[in-house]
Structures are given as structure tokens and as C-alpha cells.
## 1
Amino acid sequence: MKIATYNVNGINARLPVLLRWLTETTPDVVCLQELKAPTEKFPLNAIQEVGYQAIWHGQKSWNGVAILSRNEQPTEIRRGLSGDPDDTQSRYIEAKVNGILVGCLYLPNGNPAPGPKLDYKMSWFTRLQAHAATLLDSDVPVVLAGDYNVIPTELDAYRPERWLEDALFLPEVRQAYQSLLAQGWTDALRQVHEKEAIYTFWDYFRGAFTRNAGLRIDYLLLSPHLKPRLVSAGVDKEVRGWEKSSDHAPVWVELTD
């Protein structure tokens, strides 16, 4: 079973890239972030034409998350995180697919920092930690996949010294991510590529992709049930080089059935 996460950076603007990638790689389950489209503008028909069913949580111009499944209709469990009834940003959706509970998330960026955006990021992180703990307590196989907007270690950034004051690399943000892992989650990509400088994001400036000046900020976290089932994990880096592609590349894991 292959599960992937992909920040598409505008699903309608990147639709040809997304459809090509789905057709060529046929992952079983896909988590998408940054749809940047209201609910009614989600391109369901085009996605169904290449063999996928979907649920999504849209938002005009910003954010937005979706879960696609190649084998069955995802059964939606929840959208949004509890803990802040005034939060209207579309950043989390959860579904049961193929016997696995899949949480798709787009964690806030937090810049400029310090300031209200960093405060929102840390508050959202706290809410995610609380929900992640309840998922582990439920004693079912879970994947938490998405764009975490965290650079956990120096290995996860090209020229990490350039990110010292950025909200993706601040000590409190990195600690929040480590605290999440400490609940019992496994960072699948790092588990497989323990000491490799492997990236999932390259910005559009200064030839970052050509120079491989990237960041690792997209993750699939596995609950203890799934860690023994982990076969492989990787990044479809070549997709970042396709015409009109997102600044992220798809990240995936393969699990035994």
C-alpha cells in the first residue's frame, strides 16, 4: 500500500501536473495541501477520471486539504481540529481508507516571527499534539501526513544557518515537532533515509531546485501499528522539475498489507 502527501500549491493551477503524477505513480492514498480553492471549485471530475475518489476541505485563495483514494471512497471522520471554535482556516481533514486512519494536515507557516502568525502556529501545533495523542490512544493504525512547515534538524535544510530566525526553524517550533514524535510517532522518510540530506521543497528563486538548495518540511508520521509495516519511503523529486509544478515534491511511503 502506497500513501503519499503532496503540497500542490494551488490545485487548479497545478492540475495537469497532479493528474500526470497520479497516472504515472498510482499511489493508493494521497493527502493534498494548499488547494487554494473554495469547496465548489475542487476538480473532482478530473480526479475521478484518473481513478480516484476524494474528500476535501476547501478555502478561497488559501490553505485547503484533501484526501484521495484509488481503491475506495474515503470515509470522512472529521475536518478541523478541536480547541479553537473561532479558527476558520482549512488545515486538517481525516478519513478512514483501506483500514487506516489518515490525517491530512497543513500546519501554519508562522512567518513573520515573532508575531501573531507565529502565535497561531504554536497554538495550532498544541491542538495537533492533543489530537495526535487521542489518535494513538484509539489503538488503530494511523498516518498523519502533510506539510508541517517545520525544519526539524540541520540535516533537513540546505545552508541551515540561513533559517535561524525563520518560523520553520525556531527552537520552539522544532521542539514542538520533537514532542509530537515523542508521543510514539515515526517519521517514515527519516526512518528510511536516516542520515541523508533529502528535501521535499525548493523555492522558485535563485535556481534553488537546480542547486538542490531545498528543505525537508513534508512528512508522513506513522503510528506504532504501522512502523513494522514500513517497507520504503521516498520523494518524487523529478516532479518538482516539471513545467508549472508546485514548489514541493510528492513524498510517499510503502506499507505491507
## 2
Amino acid sequence: MSRDNFPSAELTSLQQDLLHELRQNSARAVMFHQFISEQLGLNATDHKCLDYLNRTGPVTAGQLAQLTGLTTGAVTSVIDRLEQTGYVVRDKDPNDRRRVVVKPVPEGSEHISPMFQSVMQSTLRIISQYTDQQLQLILDFIKQCNELTLAEMNKLKKENDSAQ
């Protein structure tokens, strides 16, 4: 087994390097967002849920659970904490007054955006080094990885639910 706990005999050196860098990227992203979360007075889960809300706009708790893969109970706790810290508000759904939607507070985003300005500029510099064809390949790879991650999370939740 390699240093990454993958059967090295079954993988090429390039595949091993790619898997190693993917794990490194994942770990560093978690640590980066944990640092940002601490600066905002949030935990990492709350911060990433707020990111979803800032990108999607108002959603119900159930929709946020679907987007994140979290349980509705966990999402309710996240929303409670985000509301207490002033990053979101609960409001009546304009299409169904019986439902509640969660809305990000614009001032919260204004406070967070500057923290990402440098990393965004650096990422744009990296992206500019690739052709559109290369970017399309990278985009496809990332989308498939994102779908895989959500599917694996749902699979683990189902296994955990059936074990209880």
C-alpha cells in the first residue's frame, strides 16, 4: 500500500500523484475554511451552509439539506446558529405562506467577501493558464467528484440509519 492507503500496484504513478494531491487539496480546503469560520465566529459547517445560501439565495431548510447532504435536523441547528449571529433571517415563502425560507443577510456577505478576494484573484490567475478545452475537462472532473462525494455521503447516511 502506498502512503495514501491505495493499492499502489493497481495505480499508475500519475494516478497515485493525482489521488495524493486531491486528498491534499481537500485537507487544505477544510483547514482554510475552518480558519475563515473562526474569524467569522462560526463553525465550518455553518460557514459552508452560509456559502450555499449566498450562492443560491433563499431556500427552505429541506432544500438546504438536499444541497448540503446534511439531515434536516442538522440544517435546522445550522439555521438557528446563523440566525443568532445575524447572517440569515427566516421569512415566509412568497409562494406558500405556510413554508419558511432562509435568506442570507446582504451585510453578512459584504463582511465575508473581502476574506476571499486574494484567493479568488489567485485562482483566476491559475485558471487563465489553461485553454477552454482543458478547463472543460477540469470542470467535468470536478463535477463528477462533487457528485461522487454527495453520493458517498448519502450512502454512508443510509448505512448508518440501517445500523441503528
## 3
Amino acid sequence: MTSKHMRQVLDTMAAMFPDAHCELNHSNPFELTIAVLLSAQCTDETVNKVTVSLFEKYKKPEDYLSVPLSELEQDIRRIGLFRNKAKNIQKLCEMILEKYDGRIPEKHEQLVELPGVGRKTANVVVSNAFGVPAIAVDTHVERVSKRLGLAKETDSVLEVEKKLMKKIPKDEWSLAHHRFIFFGRYHCKAQNPQCEVCPLLETCPAGKKRMKLPKSRKTKEHQPTSQT
């Protein structure tokens, strides 16, 4: 895809979703980190339902460590993989109390060392909590990128991230990340993408193939098995 086409993609998504933003409810970097950790293989909607009461009960790292693991598990049991996530939350709280005076570190390399925090989570935190340009590749960003031909079907999540960082101006990384998510969550869905009314159809290899339009490139449509 040329830089002109990339500009068209960015401008089109901006017009479609001008208010795209992080949909995980939070009021500080610590709550955001917990929310993103919980969101792995789980919808933001479900996470937000759980954190309403969770963030009322647990205000700081010490609070999560003041209860038995079994109690924390029960508080997040509606979340997928809740047992493993409960363990990671308590381990994360121990680490930030020991190493960072109870605060979430601002550097990416420090964040990825926290239990339960991978590259995607770290990117979301530095971008939304600390204003550092970043592109977090979740299932929506990956799907949209591959369907639009911005990345190959065989690319790993890290390869998709690197390609997007190269193609998208750095000062637009964070906004583009949110717009790709909204585009994938509400328009270019996993099972029923709205190709017939998509303004990007003419530049979308997967969309052309799905709609059986002429001159479509031979690009296998990406069909993920789960969404966040």
C-alpha cells in the first residue's frame, strides 16, 4: 500500500470514528493497567462491568494484597482466565510496591516486566496513561491491518505493529490505534464485515475478494477465532 493509500485509510477512519478512544473505564494509570490485564481474551464491555465494583473495593496496590487470592478470584470470576489473572494482579501489585513505590512505571521496558503485562498492554498504558505514541495490536487492529493489505496474513502481531509504525506518522500512532479498533469492532467485524457499505472497499484486498469484485488481489481473508 502506498503512502497515498495509507493517508486515505487514516482519513477515512478519522471521519468514521472521530471520537475513537480507549473504552476501558479507568481514572488513573494503575486502574488502566489492571483493566487492560483483565481484557485479554475478554471484551471491554465485560471488563467494565466487573471493574465498576472492583475499583470501588480496591483503590491501591495494598488493597489487592490485603485479601486472600480466592476472594480476588471471586471478584473477577466473570472474566475469562480469572484465576490466572488474579494471581498476576497480586504479583503485579507486589512488584510495583517493591520497585516503584506503588506506582505504575512509565517506561515500556519496565511495564513489560510486570506480571500479566505483555507488549500490547504496555503499549496501551504508555499511550493512554502517559501520552507516549504507541500502536497496540489487538485482534481488531490485526484483523483490519491484514484485510486492508497493510500486513501479510502470516505476519505475527509484532510484525504487524512494526509495519503500522513504519506506515503511520508517529504523531498519529495513538489515535490511529483507537480508530483501527473502532473500525474493526463496529464496522469491519470478524464474522460480518460491512463490506457493501465500506468506504475503503476499493483499496481493500479482502473486501474485494469477499464481494467478488474484479481485479481483487489473491489475499486470504483473515478470520480470527476470538475478539477482545
## 4
Amino acid sequence: MKIEIYRGAPFVDREEEIEFFVEWFSEVPQKILWVYGPKSSGKTTVIEYVVEKRLLGEGNWWEESKFWVKYINLREKLITSYRSFLESFIYPDDVYREEVERNYWISLKFIGLDRRKLKEIKKRERDLFEEIMEVIKKESKGKRAVLIIDEIQILRDLYIRNGKGERELLKKFLNFCVRLTKETHLCHVVILTSNTVFIERIYNDAGLKETSEFKKIEHLKREQVFEWLEIEKIKKEEIELIWEYLGGSIPRILKMLSAYRKGEDLEEFLKREAWLAYTEIVDFLTDFDDPWREYFKEIAKEIVEKGYYSIEGIKKEQKRFLQAWAEKEILFYDPLELRITGNSRVYEKGMEILLERFGK
């Protein structure tokens, strides 16, 4: 097992995912790559590691690398209009250049344009996406271009008002990504999201499905957790208990390790985490009527007993109910595998408590 420190935290055994991305970027761009998975499963960390360590490498990356990479994380952006969308992606060229000189790739402004062009784009006198295309051609200068968009579901409800009715901004943006990949082979586009309801929308769109590939990043497997925690000098019986409560969720395991090293009682810590997950479940249940609460208990029973709940053939109203729990990040909704699980193992322990207290 390979464990290294990345940004001050352990980066644990992601060789399979790393090799997948390295191979993907080595090929000619053909499809949009959608990266999805449970909350805190490591999607953003893995892709950033691959870019920094394998694509750009150490040293003068802007001179030596064969890749030209741009990254934007929409998680902390408030995008409610075409203008705020534009300002998230495009910056005045002089401001953009200052950022390039000062910062590493992960904090760079996305695209820089001179102020005259930017003004014309805001007035709809120039096409935003055509200008981005020209910048990519100019700045990549023969290198393999890579665009990474994180938390794209922020854009799902945006529209452009253009005087001729409404045109969906997100769809126009995704069509632009298709043009970058499948049509021109100019640039890889990687889109990350933990919102699998949004992934389902893409997966069920015949046109987008044909031009997309999907990569699931999951929590660590059992054997990976055991090998890691044995390196941490934790006893086997304690690792069994940790796996039972936390599964392969790296952030939760790191939280446990911090408490463990401070001398906290392991079993008490794990039971407290499960109880907190239970209270989160119970609190959200209060938003629903009794028939839906009973349905949730049926779901919880199957997840506890089988490890998953099948969503194959469920009714529309049941799907909407499950999607609400996925949006709440208590359940993980996988539209490609047609399964529901806990967003992490601790929520499944919370479901066990629910069934013990309110009957199966």
C-alpha cells in the first residue's frame, strides 16, 4: 500500500484511480468525463493530485509539462445569472496575468480576456464560448489542454435571457464541452459532482450519454482500510470495529485517528458518530408524512440486511423521495448501478439504530 502526505493529510492507496486518469489524459479527447461518487469519497483530492503530481509535476511546470490545465471549483460561488456565471469563468486579462504569476494552477483564474472583449461579451456582442475556445487554442500552444469543472450542479437551474425567450445556459455550456472533446478533440473536459441526481439527468439524456464517460470514485475498500490502520499500529480487533462503524470514509477515519491519538475511548467515539448520524436521519424524517417514514424504514432494513436498496422499477414519487435523501447527502443514489446505499457507512449504522428504536 502506498501512503503519502498530500496537503498535510494522508493520501491513501489511490493507484487504480490515478492510473485511470493518467491513461485518460494520455488519449486524444473524445468524451466528457464525469467523475461522481459519495460525499467526501476523495473525488476532488484525487483529480488535483493527478494534475499536480502526474500531469504538471514538480518544478517549472509551465515550461516542462505537456499539459495545459485550468480548474474551477464552483462550490463556493454564488451563480444566479448569466453575469455571475460569466464572472466566475472570465476575468480581465491584466488581473488574470497577475494571478498566473503569483499562484499555482489550482488557484488560478480560469480564463483571461482583454477588457474590451469582456465588455462585448457582457453585452452579448461576442459569444462567450467561442472566446473561451480561442483562448484555449492560443494559450495551450500545442500542449494537451485539460479543463476541470468541480461541483457543476451549481449551474443546473441557470438560464440566459437573450431577448428571444429563454435558452438553457447549462445545456449550452455542455454542448460547448462536447465541441471541445468529441468534435474538435481540442481539450479534455472533466466534470466532478457529488450530486448524483444531477448525474442521472445527464445519464438519461441520450445525446449527452453518447458523448460522456462516467467514473465512480468510492470510499476505500475493506482491505485498504485494514492495511492502512495496521500501518498506524491499531489492533486488528479495533480495526474491525472501525470498519463496522466508519467503512472506508477517509475523512471520518482521520477524525477517528485524531481522537484515538488523544486517548479517547474508541468504542464510545464510534457509537457517538453513529448516534449523530441517527439524529440527522430522524430530523429529516420529520419533513415527511407517516407513509413515507414507513417507506424509509423499508429502505433502511434492506440496506442494513443486503448492503443496498434496488431502485430498479420504483415509481416516480418513490424516486423523488429517494433523491431528496440523496440531496441531503444521507443516502447515496447511484443511477448507473440502480442502487441506494448510505452516503457512508456511519449512516447505515444510524439506520440500524432507527430500526432498533422504532421496529423493523
